[in-house]
Amino acid sequence: MRIGSELSRKDGRLKVTGSATYTADTQVPGLHYAVFATSAVASATIEALDTSGAERAPGVVYVMTHHNAPRLRPPAPGFGSMTFLPLQSDQIRYEGQPIALIVADSLERAMHAASLVRPSYAVRPAQMSMLERFGPDADAAVFDTLETVTQGYDEPDTRTGDPDAALGSAPVSLSRRYTMGFRHHNPMEPSATIASWDGDRLTLYDTTQHVWGVRSVVAEALGLAADDVRVVSLFLGGGFGCKGFVWPHEILTALAAREARRPVKLVLTRSQMYAACGYQSATVHDVALGASRDGRLVAVAHDVVYANAVPEAFPEYAAAGTRTVYACPAIATRHRVVKLNTIQPTAMRAPNEGMGNFALESAMDELAYELGMDPLELRLRNYAERDPTTGKPYSSKKLREAYHLGAERFGWSRRAPHPRAVRDGNDLVGYGMATALMTTYRFPSAARVRMRADGSVVVESGTQEIGTGVRTIMPQIAADRLGIDPQHVEIVLGDTTLPEAGGTFGSSSTMGVGSAVADAATKLRLAILRTAIADKASPLYEARLEDLEVHPDGAVTPRGSPTRRDAYAAVVARSGREAIEAEGSWAPGGDVLGTGDYAMYTFGAVFVDVRVEADFGITRVARCVGAYSAGRIINPKTARSQMTGGMIWGIGQALLEQSETDAELGRFVSKNLAGYLVPANADVGALEAYFVDEVDPHASPLGAKGIGELGATGVAAAIANAVYHATGVRVRDLPIRPELLLG
Ligand code: MOS
Question: What is the pTM of this model?
Answer without folding.
Answer: 0.96
